């Protein structure tokens, strides 16, 4: 297939692009490479896909991979740039779209709301309009476990009420699900939203806990532990996430139509909630260093516990995450030490 992957210089987008390429698909990646975190990491990810920093620095210019040839091309572009994006859809005639571009981060949304409105709402509407007018067979897009907000019932299930988001980031992700539903209903566009649960692993984002903790412990600096460590997360390793996304992307349209799947929402997680302090112990073990902990109260917009019920994804796609926390953290710390030459 020919697939558009938005956010292809991002953490999940990079891994999904690489997996699709290796499975024989042709991928066109789009990313604006913004300054939310150090863009050198984004350029390095693209380097792994065969796109140089010089190539990726040019705005709205199609670059071809030196490693994967025609199977990967890249364009630096913001998804809210409707006119440019429409041309890309018209030129490349994609079969499917994997939309992973978004302004991420719960805490950042408290200080920079405009970034979330532009990328997560305006940008998402642009993607929907392009899919509508260019005969896209399936749109798979990133939602988030954040939509569950103040939900007290665990594990979180797709049919739980998600009407009480506690951050603007979560509100935009819930909005994406509603917008997708309306386009599926009005224009028969098959859409699938994936609610990601705390993704971690090599090439991860520097604003995520594993990266922050590893960096601080390595440099013998204190780590910030919110809610005094009384936190639990459904940590999901990037290879397990990638496997799930690719399974959804590769499902045949005949089977999708047969099952009347025009609008679906799935949790995609590890199906297990881990204590934050146990997670920190694994980092300490693999770094061979003890953390200096700074115990702090709960942060605005944060939740105490997440836990994904993934029965639907298991039933429909045979999804089975298999990476333990110990193995996943080990892979990340090994990548971290190699990347930063520690």
From TrEMBL:
Residues 3-269 form the NAD-dependent epimerase/dehydratase domain. The keyword Transmembrane helix does not apply. Gene3D superfamilies: NAD(P)-binding Rossmann-like Domain, UDP-galactose 4-epimerase, domain 1. InterPro entries: Epimerase_deHydtase, NAD(P)-bd_dom_sf. Keywords: NAD. Coiled coil: none annotated. The keyword NAD applies. Pfam families: Epimerase. PANTHER family: EPIMERASE-RELATED (PTHR43574). This is NAD-dependent epimerase. It comes from Arenibacter certesii.
């Amino acid at each position: 297939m020919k697939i558009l992957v938005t956010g292809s210089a991002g953490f999940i987008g990079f891994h999904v692009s690489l997996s699709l390429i290796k499975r024989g698909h042709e991928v066109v990646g789009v990313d604006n490479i913004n300054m939310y975190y150090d863009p050198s990491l984004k350029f390095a990810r693209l380097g792994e896909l065969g796109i140089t920093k010089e190539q990726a620095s040019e705005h709205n210019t199609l670059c071809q991979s030196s490693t994967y040839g025609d199977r990967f091309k890249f364009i630096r572009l913001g998804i809210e740039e409707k006119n440019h994006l429409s041309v890309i859809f018209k030129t490349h005639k994609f079969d499917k779209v994997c939309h992973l571009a978004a302004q991420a981060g719960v805490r950042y949304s408290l200080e920079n709301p405009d970034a979330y409105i532009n990328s997560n709402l305006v940008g998402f509407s642009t993607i929907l309009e392009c899919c509508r007018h260019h005969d896209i067979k399936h749109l798979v897009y990133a939602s988030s476990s954040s939509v569950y907000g103040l939900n007290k019932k665990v594990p979180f299930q797709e049919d739980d009420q998600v009407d009480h988001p506690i951050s603007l980031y979560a509100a935009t992700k819930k909005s994406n699900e509603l917008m997708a539903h309306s386009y599926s209903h009005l224009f028969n566009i098959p859409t699938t939203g994936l609610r990601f649960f705390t993704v971690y692993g090599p090439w991860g984002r520097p604003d995520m806990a594993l990266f922050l903790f590893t960096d601080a412990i390595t440099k013998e600096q204190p780590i910030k532990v919110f809610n005094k460590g009384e936190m639990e997360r459904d940590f999901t390793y990037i290879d397990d996430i990638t496997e799930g996304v690719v399974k959804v992307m590769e499902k045949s349209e005949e089977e999708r139509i047969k099952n009347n799947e025009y609008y679906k929402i799935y949790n995609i997680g590890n199906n297990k909630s881990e204590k934050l302090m146990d997670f920190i112990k694994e980092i300490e073990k693999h770094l061979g260093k003890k953390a200096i902990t700074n115990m702090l109260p709960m942060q605005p917009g944060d939740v105490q516990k997440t836990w994904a019920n993934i029965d639907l994804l298991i039933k429909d796609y045979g999804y089975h995450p298999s990476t333990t926390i110990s193995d996943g953290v080990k892979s990340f710390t090994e990548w971290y030490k190699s990347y930063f030459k520690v």
